[in-house]
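Appendix B, example 12.
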Amino acid sequence: MLRILGKASSINVRKVLWTCDEIGLRYRREDWGSGYASTHAPAFLALNPNGQVPVIEDDNGVLWESNTICRYLAGEYGRADLLPSAPARRARVEQWMDWQASELNVAWRYAFNAIVRRDPAYGDPALVEAGTREWNGKIGILDRQLAATGAFAAGDTFTLADVVLGLSVNRWLMTPLERPHYPAVIAYYQRLSERPAFLAHGRNGLP
């Protein structure tokens, strides 16, 4: 059985859990991370030297990095609907997955850590304001994409791009900040909420 290391409240662990539910995979999850077993313990670092969740282990070995894990699971279990095999279609999905990791995640980091986590290291009001503007700006990019497709991030069908972006949209909506009205994003959020796996792992109110 697939082994998943990471606490269920982690946004990156939830990507993997949501993907597993979409595929129909059975798994065993273990609590690791803040408040649970330390990810800096030697046993964990032997699996992921970065000391971060999630980590998975199956018959093929150990894997870390949440977006990579999601890609692996879709490929391993033949879910071309989640991650197409045709290069052009796959690239469109991976483009939005990579954008989520490299652009959107960077945009929300300061404001989220200040507003939700109340981390004193993120206490500069000017930087919170700038971070909020940047975060809203990135969500605006997603809104325009969703308005163009009329459905999901990479086109008219649900893919892994929507797993990673759906959780990011949930985080944006759950954070108490001033934000523009993005109708395509709100419609997208409601569309994702029709999926049981999103209700279980995405729209559960956890930061």
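The chain is about 55% helix and 10% strand. The chain has two domains: 2-76, 87-201.
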